[in-house]
Design goal:
Radius of gyration: 21 Å
Largest sheet: 7 strands, mixed
Strand content: 5-15%
Order of helices and strands: HHHHEHEHEHEHEEEHHHEE
Structural class: alpha/beta
Bound molecules: pyridoxal-5'-phosphate
Shape: globular
Number of strands: 9
Strand order of the largest sheet: 1-7-6-5-4-2-3
Number of helices: 11
């Protein structure tokens, strides 16, 4: 992001839907093109060998960043203007300090877990989770010495506490991985409670397990997990965020410090998003709120229709949260999160 542009837009002062039109882009650096070009390039040119040396040293963590220094462009597996703009914009929707974008939702999830799990550690996860995540947790990570222990989302805080208890003898808990609402049951997990449950683990708070939330089903318009205690939020951008069924991509948002090991892992695994897909996701972010609001309205009508249908026994819809559900949805710090669970007739 350029200084000129920061001054032009006053950083994040405007509403996200307004910022999506131009945030992080300076047309005067791109022949005054109103929209960012797709930077279809593998490699970037350095003004001098010294520049190249300095860019590489920073990218590979061999030296500290100078004050106000922006990482130089090197190679599109490491950074690319389209991806940097997209990441700045995704961070706005996720109310995060920073974001990273990936080749798919699974690339985001797996790179994030590779960055935080170690042999001998345990990952506690809600269940059900999306099938690919389930396979990763139960079939792939155990081959590398990482144990996964699940709890049922509908089991409320008690199920989560029991999972933590049973994990304690099995090794340090590296992460609490939560998919809420769950695909496909819509089961929800109380994120504030989850944060409290893991807070006392492993001594000082800095050592507690990282809380990762898959926000694909509601995010970022109807749920902002980072506002409720999550450390990292992962999203399959393929779904509502992409919104046109014409791309596969993923995102991970959080603090810059917590994203750093994930960024390093992404550089080496090569799980980043490509520039063309990144450009398409930027296009999608401009209409995200309009599309998700319309989709929610459509879902509300379909659920109401089914709920009134004599042949339908129960409807699992977030708007029909039953009275006394153990983990009601947390109210949002701002007005735009918030969506309830499901019910039977
Ligand atoms: C909740 C959830 N998380 C993650 C994924 C994986 O995303 P992708 O297909 O973009 O890899 C999916 C895909 O269906 C999903 O539903």
């Amino acid at each position: 992001m350029t200084d000129t542009h920061n001054r032009l837009l006053g950083d994040r002062a405007l509403a996200p839907e307004t910022l999506m039109m131009g945030y992080g882009y300076d047309p005067f650096l791109s022949e005054r093109s109103l929209k960012p070009p797709v930077f279809h390039t593998s490699t970037f040119v350095f003004r001098s060998a010294q520049d190249g040396k300095e860019f590489f040293e920073l990218a590979y963590g061999l030296r500290q960043k100078h004050p106000n220094e922006e990482p130089g462009l090197i190679y599109s597996r490491i950074n690319n203007p389209d991806l940097e703009m997209l990441e700045d914009r995704l961070a706005i929707w996720d109310q995060a300090e920073a974001s990273l974008v990936f080749a798919s939702g699974m690339a985001a999830i797996s790179t994030t877990l590779w960055a935080y799990a170690r042999p001998g550690t345990v990952i506690i996860h809600s269940g059900p989770v999306y099938g690919g995540t389930d396979f990763l947790l139960k079939k792939i990570l155990p081959q590398f010495g990482v144990t996964s222990i699940g709890f049922l989302s509908e089991g409320g805080s008690k199920a989560m506490e029991e999972a933590v208890e049973s994990a304690c003898g099995k090794g340090p808990i590296a992460a609490l991985y939560i998919e809420t609402p769950a695909n496909p049951t819509n089961g929800m997990v109380d994120l504030g409670r989850a944060r409290k449950i893991v807070s006392g683990l492993h001594g000082p708070d800095a050592n507690r397990p990282v809380i990762i939330v898959d926000n694909t089903m509601l995010g970022p318009i109807y749920q902002v997990p980072l506002a409720h205690g999550a450390d990292l939020v992962v999203t399959s951008l393929t779904k509502y965020v992409g919104g046109h069924s014409d791309l596969i991509a993923g995102g991970c948002s959080g603090t810059a410090a917590m994203l750093e090991p994930i960024r390093g892992m992404r550089t080496i695994l090569g799980t980043m998003c490509d520039p063309h897909t990144g450009w398409l996701v930027m296009r999608s972010l401009e209409t995200l709120k309009l599309r998700m609001t319309a989709a929610a309205e459509g879902a509300r009508k379909v659920a109401a229709f089914l709920n009134a249908h004599p042949k339908v026994a129960s409807v699992w819809y977030l708007g029909f949260l039953p009275e006394g559900h153990p983990d009601p949805p947390v109210s949002s710090a701002n007005a735009r999160a918030q969506a309830p669970l499901s019910a039977s007739k």
